[in-house]
From TrEMBL:
<keyword id="KW-1133">Transmembrane helix</keyword>
<keyword id="KW-0547">Nucleotide-binding</keyword>
<dbReference type="InterPro" id="IPR004358">
    <property type="entry name" value="Sig_transdc_His_kin-like_C"/>
</dbReference>
<keyword id="KW-0067">ATP-binding</keyword>
<dbReference type="InterPro" id="IPR003594">
    <property type="entry name" value="HATPase_dom"/>
</dbReference>
<keyword id="KW-0812">Transmembrane</keyword>
<dbReference type="InterPro" id="IPR036097">
    <property type="entry name" value="HisK_dim/P_sf"/>
</dbReference>
<dbReference type="InterPro" id="IPR003661">
    <property type="entry name" value="HisK_dim/P_dom"/>
</dbReference>
<keyword id="KW-0418">Kinase</keyword>
<dbReference type="GO" id="GO:0000155">
    <property type="term" value="F:phosphorelay sensor kinase activity"/>
</dbReference>
<keyword id="KW-0902">Two-component regulatory system</keyword>
<keyword id="KW-0472">Membrane</keyword>
<keyword id="KW-0175">Coiled coil</keyword>
<feature type="coiled-coil region">
    <location>
        <begin position="215"/>
        <end position="242"/>
    </location>
</feature>
<feature type="transmembrane region" description="Helical">
    <location>
        <begin position="6"/>
        <end position="30"/>
    </location>
</feature>
<keyword id="KW-0597">Phosphoprotein</keyword>
<dbReference type="InterPro" id="IPR005467">
    <property type="entry name" value="His_kinase_dom"/>
</dbReference>
């Protein structure tokens, strides 16, 4: 009970209501004391009027009048004359005088609290204004014991009533909190638990119903989370199935390509000039295809294999990429440009970097061809003290906003229609394996530029 939200709210409500009642209790007791003293003054005035009506009152009747008024004596001032109307023996000297005429709330509360905690029997003088303007003032002397007992009795009744009000209020708030907050929260938790147990079950996806703004926002946030997570789980399952299928295809394709390599020897020995010129490129392409199949098989088991860092001439690799792409657009108005310092050597995995640059150039070529307009693709390489920079720039139509949002996300960052979006995702992973970064440097109506940054330094170990 104490560990539940409604239980703790119940206890806090009781405590806060009691605190509020205590704040009400103090002025209430002060007001009760004021009314008590004013009532004594009023009774004393009535008793004095009886005496004024008949000067011949015996001692027994005078004592009875004082007893009914609850005072020891009565002094009435009329016409600037102070007159002792009723009197009886006072058991002890007067210790305090209270003037009820124009007393402030602070004074009344202070006097009441002092009276409440003072257990001694004292005699006090009380001064007030007569009712109905029956004189200038009236004063009485009285004991404090009965006053204190009456104040304690009143205070106990107030506290008891406050406790009852607190309990009833807390119980009603308890029921309200359970209906408005606790039950909707439990419903949200129930949906979360059901979804955790069976995320593929559509019945466990929450339907926002709450009328409370904060709870409705929580339900809508949970709905969005469940929807995105369900889609991610489905995508993960499909990727796992696709990975298995790709691994099988890559295995068989590797065997086919290995057999194809055996025929390249005869092609290389051909005396046909065209065959002689194209045979080395065919051999290189088949070799890279075999390596790609082997890398795919390795990826299906774990992840992209770690790069084998060696130093190689980046210009030769870029020239090879561009030569292959030129063959694909021999009949299209598309030009290629290279801006690479002669003899520039970089440290990277040549096969993986070939895949990255080839993918970027191929994407650029496909974008320009799809636009139906002439264009140019330029590959430039530079270096600084910290890194080597490879930039692939084209004059194509630029990337659409949707492609920019998930540019390096598999199956979501496809640039061209029908694309899977795997090329840039794999390229980004390969560059990260070198400790570098692949980023979109520019894209607008004038073209697109991708930048690869490969660090020169070694990883520092602290």
């Amino acid at each position: 009970m104490l560990n539940t939200l409604s239980g703790r709210f119940l206890i806090l409500t009781v405590i806060f209501v009691m605190l509020a009642e205590v704040l009400i209790f103090v002025p209430s007791v002060a007001r009760y004391r004021e009314d008590y003293l004013l009532l004594r003054l009023e009774r004393a005035q009535i008793a004095s009027l009886a005496l004024l009506a008949d000067d011949m009152i015996d001692m027994d009747l005078e004592e009875e009048l004082l007893k009914n008024a609850g005072v020891y004596n009565v002094v009435l001032r009329r016409d600037e004359m102070r007159q002792l109307i009723l009197s009886s023996p006072i058991p002890e000297p007067i210790s305090e005088t209270y003037d009820m005429r124009g007393a402030t709330a602070g004074v009344l509360i202070k006097d009441a609290m002092m009276q409440l905690f003072d257990r001694s029997e004292r005699v006090v003088r009380v001064i007030g204004a007569p009712v109905q303007d029956a004189g200038l003032l009236i004063e009485v002397t009285m004991g404090t014991q009965d006053l204190r007992a009456a104040m304690i009795d009143y205070g106990v009744r107030v506290l008891a009533l406050s406790a009852v009000i607190s309990i009833v209020t807390a119980f009603l708030l308890f029921l309200a909190v359970r209906a408005i907050l606790v039950r909707p929260i439990k419903s949200v938790v129930s949906y979360m638990q059901s979804y955790s147990a069976a995320p593929e079950d559509a019945r466990s996806v929450i339907t926002p119903r709450s009328g409370v703004t904060e709870l409705r926002e929580a339900e809508e946030a949970l709905l969005k989370l469940q929807t995105e997570l369900t889609a991610a789980l489905k995508q993960k399952e499909r990727l796992a199935q696709l990975g298995g299928a790709v691994a099988k295809v890559s295995h068989d394709l590797r065997n086919i390509l290995t057999s194809a390599q055996l025929f390249t020897d005869r092609i290389e020995s051909s005396e046909d000039p065209l065959v002689t010129r194209l045979a080395p490129k065919l051999v290189n392409s088949i070799t890279r295809a075999v390596n790609l199949c082997e890398g795919t098989l390795a990826f299906g088991k774990a992840e992209e294999p770690a790069p084998t860092l060696t130093r190689f001439a980046i210009g030769e690799m870029v020239a090879d990429v561009i030569a292959s792409e030129r063959l694909a657009v021999e009949d299209y108005d598309l030009s290629f440009a290279e801006d690479i310092p002669a003899g520039l050597v970089v440290r990277a995995d040549p096969e993986q970097m070939y895949r990255v640059v080839s993918n970027l150039v191929r994407n650029a070529r496909q974008a320009i061809v799809a636009s139906g307009k002439p264009g140019e693709i330029a590959v430039s390489v530079g270096e600084s003290e910290e890194c080597w920079m490879i930039v692939v720039r084209d004059t194509g139509p630029g990337l659409p906003p949707k492609a920019q949002e998930h540019l390096f996300t598999p199956f979501q960052g496809g640039i061209r229609k029908g694309g899977t979006g795997l090329g840039l995702a794999i390229s980004s992973e390969l560059v990260r394996g070198h400790g570098g970064v692949l980023k979109l440097a520019q894209t607008d109506a004038t073209g697109t530029a991708f930048e690869i940054c490969l660090p020169k330094g070694e990883v520092s170990i602290k």
